[in-house]
TrEMBL record, chain A:
InterPro entries: RTRAF. This is RNA transcription, translation and transport factor protein. It comes from the Eukaryota. Pfam families: RLL.
TrEMBL record, chain B:
It comes from the Eukaryota. Catalytic subunit of the tRNA-splicing ligase complex that acts by directly joining spliced tRNA halves to mature-sized tRNAs by incorporating the precursor-derived splice junction phosphate into the mature tRNA as a canonical 3',5'-phosphodiester. May act as an RNA ligase with broad substrate specificity, and may function toward other RNAs. Belongs to the RtcB family. Mn(2+) 1 binds at D120, C123, H228. This is RNA-splicing ligase RtcB homolog. Mn(2+) 2 binds at C123, H260, H354. GO terms for molecular function: GTP binding; metal ion binding; RNA ligase (ATP) activity; RNA ligase (GTP) activity. Ligation probably proceeds through 3 nucleotidyl transfer steps, with 2',3'-cyclic phosphate termini being hydrolyzed to 3'-P termini in a step that precedes 3'-P activation with GMP. In the first nucleotidyl transfer step, RTCB reacts with GTP to form a covalent RTCB-histidine-GMP intermediate with release of PPi; in the second step, the GMP moiety is transferred to the RNA 3'-P; in the third step, the 5'-OH from the opposite RNA strand attacks the activated 3'-P to form a 3',5'-phosphodiester bond and release GMP. One of its GO terms (biological process) is tRNA splicing, via endonucleolytic cleavage and ligation. It comes from Chironomus riparius. Catalytic component of the tRNA-splicing ligase complex.
UniProtKB/TrEMBL annotation, chain C:
GO terms for biological process: tRNA splicing, via endonucleolytic cleavage and ligation. The keyword tRNA processing applies. It holds the Pfam family Archease. PANTHER family: ARCHEASE (PTHR12682), PROTEIN ARCHEASE (PTHR12682:SF11). This is Archease domain-containing protein. Belongs to the archease family. It comes from the Eukaryota. GO terms for molecular function: metal ion binding. Signal peptide: none annotated. Residues 21-158 form the Archease domain. SUPFAM superfamilies: MTH1598-like (SSF69819). It comes from Chironomus riparius. Keywords: Calcium, Metal-binding, tRNA processing.
Length: 247, 506, 158
């Protein structure tokens, strides 16, 4: 609902995360600036200082000035009320424009031409039925093409496909040429002493993954050390007066 | 000591395989476990000749043969498994050089022995790679040798050129390579490729005498003398292409730098101090050994613990020392080629310790045990997937650096599963002396050696001419024999052979 | 001691004694063999043998005098500590390489030695480098005392 209201008000980012303090405060400022305009521009200063510790005070006063009902305790509830208030203002300011817009007329308009109402989603997936047999079949075909193993829940398979594409088929990854030569002989050498062959294979694979993640940790450690070296500690020097070399 | 005729001695020595021999209990008194040593045909002859000579001298004389020393170590309290002699074994102080032995940490009678570590604590080998090839280096071979010689202080009485005061030393002893890292002398990646990550955590500088610190301070960042060296080497042969590529070695002709050095006067003094302390502890705790040189103390005694903490500090000293010389080597190369060490890809391939005692877990008779493993003139060689080896070598096994002698080849081996079970993951460390120093001085001419180096197209810079004779290849066992034995016996695997083109010595 | 002028030190040192030591065979290390008409002389000569292995003593001049004291619980221990003190004199301040040793006090009851050491600071520009001595060892240590001659055998780890 929140999203639809934001779309109808023409917010540039209707997916805004209202849980995030910064985004929330920005949204309030945006509503006042663009739609509500309860204050004169110079009086909006308090609300605009979204990083200031005083912001909450300004927000309290703002709600009071708007006559926001005191029963609304959470910020989300308050936001919803302020949004509705903004829509109400928008409606009453353009009464003539909106009065004629009944749902029937809109449906007709949709049929006759593609001039979509502003609520229409731009994301094509929103209109997909993820549970339909066609969708599942599509996922299965994609999985087969990308060598993603089978899982009864095709949505989990879809998640895996997404990871394969993101990790292995992104622009950077595609630039790396496929290594030539023999693959690592995972079944040679010291095993993991598992009786079950499948568990043994899995353990050996996990062992390799562990090596990889250790390497990543070690690299981060090294980078941190180098940063510290650069920042504070190092000034390597030699003083040949202390000893004699090359005689 | 038991004195028998040579023929009678032989009854206690039994062939196990083409490359190994068993020393049965009774060869020396009180043996708790058997001994084993690894030799091929050529090295075997040397070993048995040494034993025969000692029989002739009726047990009186300078030293015990290696086989007897292995057996005396087998008689120490708390030893488990076997007393192991590696192919480069030769007679040394207490333990033979090339002898490893493990002691059960949970046995209250188990001992730690400075003689099982050696005077040069954490003496070891470090190998740096470069992206240069022989053809790049040959034209400037002499200049590069001189440049290394101009950067690294070598020989008796030389002093380090990295500014250090007493407080720096205390910190370095505690922190090991972390100190070098903090001060900016090494790269973050270097630490990863060192045993113990270049730092023994149990180091306690307060357990080290003032005398050791005074000897150590001026010598930090110096190569030393004796068998220590810095060599520019080229890859001569690759046996295991895959493992070599994991080390950044791609082709023959690639240039590497090998640094062989230890903890200098600092470690020597730590060992000396501990031997004096332990003589007293032995009397007090009534520890009996076959040889007075095997001075030792119970691991859990105050002397034992103090030694382990001081030894760890000496270990750290050695890592800082090799790190300082790594810094100087990188500088020398960067200046010569007018570029940066980064652009020359001068990464540390690995850094091994071949004189050290470490606490490790091993499986003995199907049971996991916590052991104090002494390796004297022996290199740790852990197999693939061992938790103690760096992530980059998890699949290849630990690189083992085996330094040759002046003008001969060096090798990179990798650890094996068989080595882990048979020798507690230990293998050879170098060539091992065959001729005594005095004999070398008498029989070998200084100029002949220099001529020989010239023929082989090896640039040489040496501080002491006498040393050239003592360290001549003829004075040592053939390193190829030593390495081939380890490979054939399966206790480590050949990976890369390196040949020197420039030698810097004390 | 440091206040003494070089002339005074040289005068104090007197004659440099003749060499009564040699180096014997040992696989990895070196055995110092020294002798003298009495224990004191054999000890002094053994110390000189050790310095002789580190450089050519002909190149060393007498410029400084330092004193060392060694204590032990038996005669072998005394020899060991005597040599260890001398090694320390070389390895750290004052980095002294000795041309002459003179034992001033040799107590064979309390096992104590006081010795004057004459030489100069080791200088790479002046003194050729011999071999580095890592440590003194008890290995095959022998002190042979006869009425007419004393002999000492010590293996040093190098």
């Amino acid at each position: 609902m929140l999203r639809n209201k934001l779309v109808s008000l023409g917010h540039p980012n209707p997916e805004v995360n209202t849980q995030d303090m910064k985004s929330f405060r920005n949204l309030i400022v945006w509503l006042e600036d663009q739609h509500i305009r309860n204050y004169k521009i110079e009086d909006r200063a308090g609300l605009r200082k979204i990083t200031s510790p005083e912001w909450s005070k300004a927000f309290e006063k703002y709600k009071e000035d708007l006559n926001c009902p005191k029963e609304l305790k959470t910020e989300l509830e308050q936001l919803k009320w302020i949004l509705s208030y903004a829509i109400k203002l928008e409606y009453s300011d353009n009464l003539d424009k909106y009065r004629s817009m009944t749902s029937e007329k809109i449906r007709e308009a949709e049929k006759s031409q593609s001039s979509a109402p502003s609520v229409k989603s731009v994301n094509p997936f929103d209109n997909l039925d993820f549970t339909s047999p066609q969708f599942e079949a599509g996922v299965r075909t994609l999985a087969l093409k990308l060598n993603v193993p089978h899982h009864p829940d095709h949505l989990i398979v879809l998640g895996a496909i997404s990871r394969v594409i993101k990790d292995n088929l992104n622009k950077e990854a595609l630039k790396i040429s496929i290594p030539e030569g023999k693959p690592f002989p995972i079944f040679d050498g010291q095993g993991m002493n598992q009786n079950d062959a499948d568990i043994e294979t899995a353990s050996r694979i996990l062992r390799l993954l562990q090596v990889q993640s250790l390497r990543e940790i070690q690299t981060v450690i090294n980078e941190t050390i180098v940063e510290c070296q650069d920042l504070i500690t190092t000034e390597p020097k030699t003083d040949t007066r202390l000893g004699k070399v090359g005689f | 000591m038991v004195v028998r005729k040579y023929e009678d001695e032989l009854k206690y020595i039994e062939r196990i395989s083409d490359y190994s021999w068993r020393i049965k209990k009774g060869f020396q008194e009180n043996m708790n476990v058997e001994g084993i040593f690894y030799v091929n045909k050529n090295l075997e002859a040397l070993m048995f000749e040494e034993l025969r000579n000692s029989c002739r001298s009726d047990g009186i004389g300078g030293f015990l043969p290696g086989m007897k020393q292995i057996a005396n170590v087998a008689a120490l309290p708390g030893i488990v498994g076997k007393s192991v002699g590696l192919p480069d074994i030769h007679s040394g102080y207490g333990f033979a050089i090339g002898n490893m032995a493990a002691f059960d940490m949970n046995n209250p009678l188990s001992i730690v022995s400075p003689g099982g570590v050696g005077f040069d604590i954490n003496c070891g080998v470090r190998l740096l790679r470069t992206n240069l090839f022989e053809k790049d280096v040959r034209p400037v071979q002499e200049q590069l040798a001189q440049s290394l010689f101009d950067h690294i202080p070598v020989g008796v009485g030389s002093k380090g050129i990295i500014p250090m005061n007493a407080r720096d030393l205390e910190e370095a002893l505690e922190m090991g390579m972390d100190w070098s890292l903090r001060e900016g002398y090494v790269w973050a990646e270097d630490k990863e490729h060192c045993e113990e990550y270049g730092r023994m955590l149990n180091a306690d500088p307060s357990k080290v005498s003032v005398r050791a610190k005074k000897r150590g301070l001026p010598q930090l960042g110096t190569l030393g003398a004796g068998n220590h060296y810095a060599e520019i080497q080229v890859v001569d042969e690759i046996y295991d292409k895959w493992a070599a590529s994991k080390m950044g070695i791609e082709e023959t002709g690639q240039v590497c730098v090998m640094i062989h050095s230890g903890s200098r006067g600092f470690g020597h003094q730590v060992a000396t101090d501990a031997l004096v302390e332990m003589e007293k502890a032995m009397k007090r705790d009534k520890i009996e050994t076959n040889d007075r040189q095997l001075a030792c103390a119970r691991i859990n005694s105050e002397e034992g613990q103090n030694y382990l903490k001081a030894m760890a500090a000496a270990g750290n000293f050695a890592w800082v020392n090799r790190s300082s010389m790594t810094f100087l080597t990188r500088q020398a190369f960067a200046k010569q080629f007018n570029t940066t060490p980064d652009d020359l890809d001068m990464h540390v391939i690995y850094d091994v310790s071949h004189n050290i005692a470490k606490i490790e877990n091993h499986v003995v008779d199907g049971k996991e045990m916590k052991l104090l493993v002494h390796r004297k003139g022996s290199t740790r060689a852990f197999p693939p997937h061992h938790p103690s080896i760096p992530v980059d070598y998890q699949l290849t096994g630990q690189p083992v650096l085996v330094g040759g002698t002046m003008g001969t080849c060096s090798y990179i081996l990798t650890g094996t599963e068989k080595g882990l079970t048979e020798t507690f993951g230990s293998t050879c460390h170098g060539a091992g002396r065959a001729l005594s120093r005095a004999k070398s001085r008498r029989n070998i001419d200084y100029l002949d050696i220099l001529e020989q180096m010239k023929t082989k197209n090896i640039a040489i810079r040496v501080a002491s001419p006498k040393l050239v004779m003592e360290e001549a290849p003829e004075s040592y066992k053939n390193v190829t024999d030593v390495v081939d034995t380890c490979h054939s016996a399966g206790i480590s695997k050949k990976c890369v052979k390196l040949r020197p083109i420039a030698v810097i010595k004390g | 001691m440091a206040d003494d002028s070089i002339e005074e030190v040289v005068k104090d040192a007197g004659e440099v004694p003749e060499i009564k030591y040699e180096y014997l065979d040992h696989t990895a290390d070196v055995q110092l063999h020294s002798w003298g008409s009495n224990l004191t002389e054999a000890f002094e000569q053994n110390g000189m043998a050790m310095f002789g292995y580190m450089t050519e003593l002909d190149t060393v001049d007498i410029k400084e005098k330092h004193e060392i004291i060694a204590n032990a619980e038996d005669l072998d221990g005394l020899l060991y500590h005597f040599l260890d003190e001398l090694l320390f004199l070389f390895s750290a301040e004052p980095y002294l390489i000795c041309k002459k040793l003179r034992i001033e006090e040799f107590d064979t009851e309390a096992f104590k030695i006081r010795c004057s050491c004459f030489g100069e600071q080791f200088d790479l520009a002046k003194h050729p480098q011999g071999t580095e001595v890592k440590a003194i060892t008890y290995s095959a240590m022998q002190i042979v005392q006869k009425p007419e001659k004393c002999e000492i055998f010590v293996i040093i780890d190098i």
